[in-house]
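USER: If only I could read backbone structure tokens as easily as an amino acid sequence. It would mean a lot if you studied the pair and described how this chain folds. Here is the record:
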Amino acid sequence: MGTPVTRAAGLDVSFTRTGVAVACDTVTVRDVRGSGPTPITLTERALRLSTLTGRILEALPDDVTHVAIEGPAFDQVTGKAHERGGLWWTVVRALLFRGIDVVEIGPTVLKKYATERGNAGKDEVLAAVVRRFPDVDVANNDQADALVLAAMLARHLGQPFDLEPSQKRRDALDGVLWWKP
């Protein structure tokens, strides 16, 4: 593994368990867990969005300048799409207001970079990540996704911390709408 990028992170945002990967002096992964019962009222739902967004931002070091966030999975059938979209946009907005450059990476692009296949299952991504990053203690699918996002971002910024990717993985990087310098 090369030298980790400074000030870059990956986020796999979720109400139940958000995966966070940070590449500073070392590469670390962790979870930010949602809490409490499912909110019913509009006020409870708004508070849930605000509280969870705050907890996700607290998981990032103050010197993070770039974040790659997994784009929404529009084909999910788990329900609460409106709330999931609200959380995603609330996190993106909060990051942008802090002056952090944010890039969205779609689920199929993330999977292609991790496994060379855009239609890989979550467990296939986890297995590929554990093999590709043996020095990082990855505990679950959310952390694996966040780590892949951080690796893609670091590579784009010219400070990769993963092994040289195959051509298929490099092609995945072309599937991201990177911001202009």
